Amino acid sequence: MNKNSILKKLPVLCIGALLLVACTREGAQSTVSVVGIGTVAAQPDMIQILISISQTAQTTRQAQEEVNLQVRRVLALLQTENIKDTHISTPSLRFTQEYEWSGNRRVLVGQKVEQIMTFVIQDLQQDTDKVSRILDTLTEIDHIALNQINFSIKDNQELFIQSRALAYQKALDKARQYAELSGLKVGRALSISELEHAPLVPINTRVMNQQVYAKAESSTDTSGSTIVPSGELEITSQIAVVFLLE
């Protein structure tokens, strides 16, 4: 190969050598992958209550008419307590046959109608007795079963912002510890992935409901009014972060 050919190929060889060095450094960089979990607690301000109303009669029509009467009473109660129509729904309405066993035979008892209703009570802190009043009145209506109560927080965006910040700080603290053990320093974050949100978890109801318990203990009312401590809810964010180590 003559001298002129070598000189022409020299820039190409230099560029190739630089790329090789860059790839080698990129492939040799050290990283650390950590998971951070941040949790904040807050008092719930809304509650979802799920009830079922059921009746068994000789015919489906009779059973449904009886259920309708009970539903009207429930709706009247909720209207009195200023529960919005948009916060009341019927997720399920079932028509089935009801049987019972007589000896070794299954005997038809009648037709059963069951209606599931759910409603939401908001602004719990403004009227702390509202839930108790509604539940106490519901117990006066026959053939009603209280299936489920779920506390929640209406405006939780700021709480999630706080929990994410805590989660990132926890991840950074972990990365710094691992870096120190390795004789390195934490660089920039290469990737951040938010994991699935954990459900709202109720915690320590006793501390947040001292006033409720005090009221119950000092009350002279012997009617057995329903007491529903709300406690606090934990809001948790989980993130996975990959940091560059330098």
Describe the model.
The chain has two domains: 28-42 and 156-245, Translation Initiation Factor IF3, CATH 3.30.110.170; 46-152, Protein of unknown function (DUF541), domain 2 (Alpha-Beta Plaits). Helices cover 39% and strands 38% of the residues. The chain has six helices and eight strands. It has helices spanning 3-28, 60-80, 130-138, 157-182, 205-208, 210-218, and strands at 30-42, 46-57, 88-102, 105-122, 144-152, 186-194, 201-203, 232-245. The strands form two sheets. Strands 1, 6, 7 and 8 form a four-stranded antiparallel β-sheet that branches. A hairpin with a 2-residue loop joins β3 (88-102) and β4. Residues 12-26 and 204-220 have low confidence and may be disordered.
Concise synopsis of the structure shown:
With about 250 residues, the chain is an alpha+beta fold. It has helices at about 5-30, 60-80, 130-140, 155-180, 205-210, 210-220, and strands at about 30-40, 45-55, 90-100, 105-120, 145-150, 185-195, 200-205, 230-245.
By CATH's scheme, which homologous superfamily of the largest domain applies?
Protein of unknown function (DUF541), domain 2
Structural class: alpha+beta
C-alpha Rg (nearest Å): 32 Å
Portion in strands: 35-45%
- The percentage helix is 25-40%
> Can you tell me the CATH class of the largest domain?
Alpha Beta
Overall structural domain count: 2
Mean pLDDT score: 82
**In the CATH scheme, what's the topology name of the largest domain?**
Alpha-Beta Plaits
Report how far apart the termini are.
44 Å
Number of helices: 6
Q: Main beta sheet, described?
A: 4 strands, antiparallel
What is the overall silhouette? elongated
Strands, count? 8
Please tell me the CATH architecture of the largest domain by its name. Answer: 2-Layer Sandwich
Question: What string, H for helix and E for strand, traces the elements in order?
Answer: HEEHEEHEHEEHHE
Please mark out the parts with pLDDT under 50 across 5 or more consecutive residues, or reply none: 12-26, 204-220
